Amino acid sequence: MNNTTCHGTSHDGVARPLHWSVVALIVVQFLMWENVSSRGWTVKFFGVLKLPALMQAGSAVGHAMGDVHSVVAWVLCGLIVMHVTAAVFHRLILKDDTLQRMLP
To answer: CA-CA distances (angstroms) from residue 100 to 48, 79, 82, 96, 104?
Structure first.
């Protein structure tokens, strides 16, 4: 296997923003419990800790957050597909050690 990497090349300009976009959108998805609160549902952190309602039940803003949640979910799915495609590209096409460097 070729031990070269793409660091310092144009791939770095794509990889870092893609990675941090995935992380940011995952965090945003967890913060969307306004939608759940507006529907009167309870949010529990890991099924144990009950989180406070952020919106009153029936709130129009909370319901609008549901639409935002849906869009963010689809964007996140697209970014995950891009992430996996990039990993496969590194493994099969570039044959570099990018995936091995991710292992603990």
So the answer is: 36, 21, 19, 9, 9
Q: Could you write out the DSSP letters of every residue in 43-99?
A: EEETTTEEEPPSS-TT-HHHHHHHHHHHHHHHHHHHHHHHHHHHHHIIIIII--SHH
Report the candidate in 21, 14, 20, 54 with the shortest Cα–Cα distance to residue 37: 54
Question: Tens digits of per-residue pLDDT, 51-93?
Answer: 887 778 878 887 788 888 888 889 888 988 988 888 888 888 9
CA–CA–CA angle 54, 37, 78 (5° rounding): 100
The domain spans of the chain are 10-97
Question: Token pair for residue 39?
Answer: 């529907």
pTM listed for this prediction: 0.61
- Determine the Cα–Cα distance for residues 53 and 39; give it in Å rounded to an integer: 10
Structure tokens given for 99 = 């995936």
pLDDT for 2 equals: 45
Tokens linked to 6 = 């793409």
